């Protein structure tokens, strides 16, 4: 089980992902944009943050950069449906800023759950080695 912060501005996508993650026994907090996510991070120390890239108020790109600056060990999964640019361009940028994994929308649910499991396993292995 992981503590996950999900940052997604689209209500339907956010609701679907929250339900899917909870069914997989993860503890999930959600935010609708990068500004809300920063507020949630002040109260919660998630294992993984899943963030959309194109959002109002504070983009996922800005959020990833800020979070990696303050929480360098946090695992981040970026998701994007694109915008003016091909989603792959945004996702490549997000990975260069520190996202561990990225997915184009619509997100393959089983691939997302597998990525979460792999990131958690890697985090547990690092903790045991230290």
Overview of the molecule:
It is built from 5 helices and 5 strands; from the N terminus they run βαβαβαβαβα. With 130 residues, it is an alpha/beta fold. The chain has a single domain, classed as 3-Layer(aba) Sandwich (Rossmann fold), CATH 3.40.50.2300. A 5-stranded parallel beta sheet has the order 2-1-3-4-5, sandwiched between helices. The longest helix has 21 residues. The radius of gyration is 13 Å and the shape is globular.
Our estimate of the beta-strand percent is 15-25%
Rg measurement, Å:
13 Å
Distance from first to last alpha carbon: 21 Å
Structural shape:
globular
Strand order of the largest sheet: 2-1-3-4-5
CATH evolutionary superfamily? Response regulator
CATH architecture: 3-Layer(aba) Sandwich
Q: Number of DSSP strands?
A: 5
Main sheet attributes: strand count, strand direction, barrel closure? 5 strands, parallel
Low-confidence stretches: 125-130
Supply the helix-strand structural class: alpha/beta
Succession of helices and strands: EHEHEHEHEH
Number of helices: 5
Helix content: 40-55%
């Amino acid at each position: 089980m992981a503590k996950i912060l999900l940052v997604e501005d689209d209500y339907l996508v956010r609701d679907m992902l929250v339900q899917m993650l909870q069914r997989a026994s993860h503890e999930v907090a959600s935010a609708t944009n990068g500004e809300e996510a920063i507020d949630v991070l002040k109260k919660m120390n998630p294992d993984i943050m899943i963030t959309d890239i194109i959002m109002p108020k504070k983009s996922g790109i800005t959020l990833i950069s800020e979070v990696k600056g303050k929480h360098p060990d946090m695992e981040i999964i970026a998701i994007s449906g694109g915008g003016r640019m091909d989603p792959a361009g945004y996702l490549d940028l997000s990975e260069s800023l520190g996202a561990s994994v990225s997915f184009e929308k619509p997100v393959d649910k089983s691939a997302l759950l597998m990525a979460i499991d792999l990131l958690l396993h890697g985090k547990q292995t690092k903790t045991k080695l230290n």
